[in-house]
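Hi support team,

I'm opening this ticket because the web form for multi-chain structure prediction keeps timing out on my end. I have pasted the exact lines I submitted so you can reproduce it. The total is 510 residues across four entries, so I didn't expect it to be a heavy job. Is there a limit I'm missing, or should I split the entries? Thanks in advance, R.K.
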Amino acid sequence: MDRRDAILDAAVAIADERGLDAVSMRSVAERVGVTPMALYPHVGSKAALLDGMIGRLLGEMWPADGLSPPAGPGSGADGPDPAEPATGGPGATAPGAGPPDWRTQLAAIGRAGRAIARRHPWAASLVFARPAVTPDSVRAIDVVYGALLAAGVPAQQVPRLERLLGTVVFGFAASEAGGRFGPPESNPRSTRGLLPEGPLPGHEALADVLAAPADWDAEFEADLADLAEIIEATARRARSEQRRDRPAADRASPG
Amino acid sequence: MDRRDAILDAAVAIADERGLDAVSMRSVAERVGVTPMALYPHVGSKAALLDGMIGRLLGEMWPADGLSPPAGPGSGADGPDPAEPATGGPGATAPGAGPPDWRTQLAAIGRAGRAIARRHPWAASLVFARPAVTPDSVRAIDVVYGALLAAGVPAQQVPRLERLLGTVVFGFAASEAGGRFGPPESNPRSTRGLLPEGPLPGHEALADVLAAPADWDAEFEADLADLAEIIEATARRARSEQRRDRPAADRASPG
DNA sequence: TGGAATGATCTACACCGTATACAATCTACA
DNA sequence: TGTAGATTGTATACGGTGTAGATCATTCCA
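Hello R.K., no limit was hit. The queue was backed up. Here is the completed structure from your submission:
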């Protein structure tokens, strides 16, 4: 194995076990069995090491060979794969069936993203904190592009919807991991949680709903369904406009 | 002014000027004119200080007096308010007009959130990194609840859609600030950007679109419009189901 | 007037990222 | 086979970090 990969693995393992703050050049070096300064020829800097860590995670999603998804939930990623609601990999297909339709494909990609973020709770916020332009992420984005095009989304809108999808998936995961979604009363470790003084008509009207515990799996699925609805509406709108513009002609690329 | 507020102001100012990494107990203390350890009785710890900073920002959004939005674009938030595309405050109304409809209200809240995140680029990622349950954020959430209820969203779905809205707005802002959206070639500060080896059919099919520069303002507006569409579809669905369940009766609160 | 509480200070500790200088090992070519 | 060059690891050191601990000044209330 490449020395760089060993370093990245050590860093990911430390982050999983003791949190992202525990990832220091010294701790990683110690785990690899080397002096801190020995890491620099391989990773360049601490920031580049963090970049490499998220790249490594996206590598879990699309192992190495291009577009094909992993064979199954335990295909050598990083240990047992607990409690995934639906599919194993981002593009998982029943063997022998045709190519998956864009809905199941996008939903699977979204679920895979959240699954990774749950396995590595430190990752989601990193995705927002630094540009993600590693080869692995480019590959992942390309698959999403393909699914959106297959759904009939016009090319103009595809990059935007890809970004929106990523924002929702990783934003959801980051909120889950960071505690943004947690109710205040479950977080009594500080003097926070004191309510504002003014009236809160919205909260009062929703008292019943807010009292019930939330089901995050269900909420994520509902968000995915809403995103699919957006995609479908966009495709539908494009189809009707195209029909109106050119009733029965071949389409030429504009511009 | 409370000493705590002065500390928070100093921290925010430092983050605005020199980035979040420049916010240290020592730098903040120096700006306040005090020893580092003197901060601890007021803010507790560095983590709590960061919490307080994002609370302070949400305080910009809803100044102090409960639900009423700021009177106009320059109503004393934090100085001049540069380059806002549409409205001034989250609930801005033309004076004398009726209460704003939920669409403009939600759009204004979203724009205000993004505007804050642009003024303080370090903030958006912090929102994801730590739980946001300050009094100010509770107040902000309450306004969103009200708008969603006014749109006709059933109570069951209101908290989820509020979270989805916040995820999209802050996720967009964090991506903008963190560089997740930036094209790789505009980020040449490292040896990243090397493309994967396999084919990228999606990118090839979208070559024209990807070559054009993106308009982030327009993209944000499009995302807001899509969210509004989701909200409307949810409300519409709920109305039709309700009509089917109780053909001509007064509605009683369920549960 | 006398505690007690609060706020601020000083010192110190363990840790951080990494610049710099140097030694060891491996590679490629004469 | 010998040697130059590159690559990889080490040792040391510097300036920075958050904060525990002890101490001192001020202020407020009994």
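A quick check on our side: Residues 24-26, 36-37, 40, 45-46 of chain B lie near DNA strand D (CB under 10 Å from a C1'). Let us know if the file doesn't open in your viewer.
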